[in-house]
């Protein structure tokens, strides 16, 4: 079966598995980023399904899948929000670390090794954060996410934009100063919002929101209208689909 997994990318992230849950380790930047992207996910699911923002289990009764889950930084909060969670990653080392951590937290999450081609069934919520820029075949990867989306489902993605600013901050500063492991990013594989929107449209999905994810030395990560560094987006099935 054809795969969207890039073996070199899987190996790179697999090497980081051992300290993925260490907020001061090689994934420290993800720990700082995660609360911001989780707040975005919460706001978008509330808006999509008309949920009560004070509900502690807004995903109760819904199926969610996180594609490219790493060691579970997003999968675990989705489980705590009430979802029945499946999570996939290309690196076996990450899945092993994710399972171990979830067990320690008393959380039940169906972790699997694989890419979008390993998805079965449909999910109410499909998430894929900081992943599309690492895959071997972007159209096939996006199509796999779309195929996994239920009729009234919501897709949430995040990825760096391909701009001079993202090259400077994420590679020049982030990787150059050791805040992000060297070799994590290939700037040429970054997608602009227009490019990712077009890829989603080709699968029958329509983008309903694009929000910037910015960073400053004083505030850290925050949601913003400026998409020049990184952005999050939501998509759903187009009305005619």
Please give a structural write-up.
- This protein is of the alpha/beta class and 241 residues long.
- The chain has one domain (7-237): Vaccinia Virus protein VP39 (Rossmann fold, 3-Layer(aba) Sandwich).
- 34% of the residues lie in helices and 24% in strands.
- It has seven helices and eight strands.
- It has an eight-stranded mixed sheet.
- The radius of gyration is 17 Å and the shape is globular.
- The protein starts with 6 loop residues before the first helix and ends with a strand.
Outline of this structure?
The protein has helices at 7-14, 28-49, 75-80, 92-105, 138-147, 164-175, 193-201, and strands spanning 63-67, 84-89, 110-113, 123-129, 149-160, 205-216, 220-224, 230-237. The protein has 241 residues and is an alpha/beta fold.
List strands and helices in order, with pairings.
Elements: H1 7-14, H2 28-49, E1 63-67, H3 75-80, E2 84-89, H4 92-105, E3 110-113, E4 123-129, H5 138-147, E5 149-160, H6 164-175, H7 193-201, E6 205-216, E7 220-224, E8 230-237
Parallel strand pairs: 1-2, 1-4, 2-3, 4-5
Antiparallel strand pairs: 5-8, 6-7, 6-8
CATH fold type: Rossmann fold
Q: Please indicate the percent range of residues in DSSP E strands (runs of 2 or more).
A: 15-25%
Tell me the name of the CATH homologous superfamily.
Answer: Vaccinia Virus protein VP39
Query: How many independent structural domains?
Result: 1
Identify the overall geometry. globular
Can you tell me the residue ranges where pLDDT is under 50 for at least 5 consecutive residues? Answer: none
Strand order of the largest sheet: 3-2-1-4-5-8-6-7
Rg, Å, rounded: 17 Å
């Amino acid at each position: 079966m054809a795969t969207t997994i890039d073996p070199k990318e899987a190996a790179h992230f697999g090497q980081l598995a051992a300290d993925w849950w260490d907020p001061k380790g090689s994934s420290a930047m993800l720990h700082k980023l995660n609360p911001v992207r989780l707040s975005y996910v919460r706001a978008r699911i509330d808006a999509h399904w008309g949920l009560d923002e004070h509900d502690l289990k807004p995903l109760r009764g819904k199926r969610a899948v996180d594609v490219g889950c790493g060691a579970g930084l997003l999968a675990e909060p989705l489980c705590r929000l009430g979802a029945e969670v499946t999570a996939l990653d290309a690196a076996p080392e990450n899945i092993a670390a994710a399972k171990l951590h979830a067990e320690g937290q008393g959380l039940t999450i169906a972790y699997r090794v694989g890419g979008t081609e390993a998805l079965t069934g449909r999910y109410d919520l499909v998430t894929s954060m900081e992943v599309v820029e690492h895959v071997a075949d972007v159209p096939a990867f996006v199509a796999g996410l779309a195929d996994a989306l239920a009729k009234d489902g919501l897709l949430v993605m995040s990825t760096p934009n391909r701009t001079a600013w993202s090259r400077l901050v994420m590679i020049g500063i982030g990787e150059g100063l050791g805040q992000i492991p060297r070799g994590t990013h290939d700037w040429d594989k970054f997608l602009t919002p227009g490019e990712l929107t077009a890829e989603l449209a080709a699968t029958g999905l329509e983008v309903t929101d694009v929000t910037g994810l910015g960073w400053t030395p004083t505030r850290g990560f925050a949601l913003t209208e400026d998409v020049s560094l990184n952005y999050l987006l939501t998509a759903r099935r187009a009305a005619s689909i």
